[in-house]
Amino acid sequence: MPTSWAEVKASRAGSAERHDGYRYAAVLHETGDKVRSLRREAGLSQRELSQRAQISPSTVSRLESGEALPAVAALLRISQALGAEFVLRLEAGASLA
């Protein structure tokens, strides 16, 4: 059993949970970056976007910072407020490795 943080980290280096965590973090950050970019292109503040999308300003802030991913309904409202198309894509046979 690992006793130090370095040993714990090394023991989990190739784990599926760690891989899933990195993939989830990547989705959070990519989505947040895209929303921020589209919002800035539209010349909107976070508050203005939140009002147009009928969501809280903290939801916009947390999304753009990669802290949280709102529900699909909120993402749809955000995309509409930005004049963007919302696309959710699932592909069979995609590698998880």
Explain this structure to me?
The structure is a single chain. The two termini are 26 Å apart. This protein has a domain at 16-82: 434 Repressor (Amino-terminal Domain), CATH 1.10.260.40. It has helices at 5-11, 16-41, 46-53, 57-64, 72-82. With 97 residues, it is mostly helical.
Describe the structure concisely for a colleague:
With 97 residues, the protein is mainly α. It has helices spanning 5-11, 16-41, 46-53, 57-64, 72-82. It has a domain at 16-82: lambda repressor-like DNA-binding domains (434 Repressor (Amino-terminal Domain), Orthogonal Bundle), CATH 1.10.260.
Could you give me the name of the CATH homologous superfamily of the domain at 16-82? Answer: lambda repressor-like DNA-binding domains
Rg computed from alpha carbons, rounded to a whole number of angstroms: 17 Å
Query: Under the CATH scheme, which architecture of the domain at 16-82 would be assigned?
Result: Orthogonal Bundle
Multimeric state of these chains?
Answer: single chain
Distance between the termini: 26 Å
Helix content: 55-70%
Biggest sheet, in brief? Answer: none
Q: In sequence order, what are the helices and strands, one letter per element?
A: HHHHH
SS-derived structural category: mainly alpha
How would you state the average pLDDT, rounded?
86
- CATH topology annotation of the domain at 16-82: 434 Repressor (Amino-terminal Domain)
The CATH class of the domain at 16-82 turns out to be Mainly Alpha
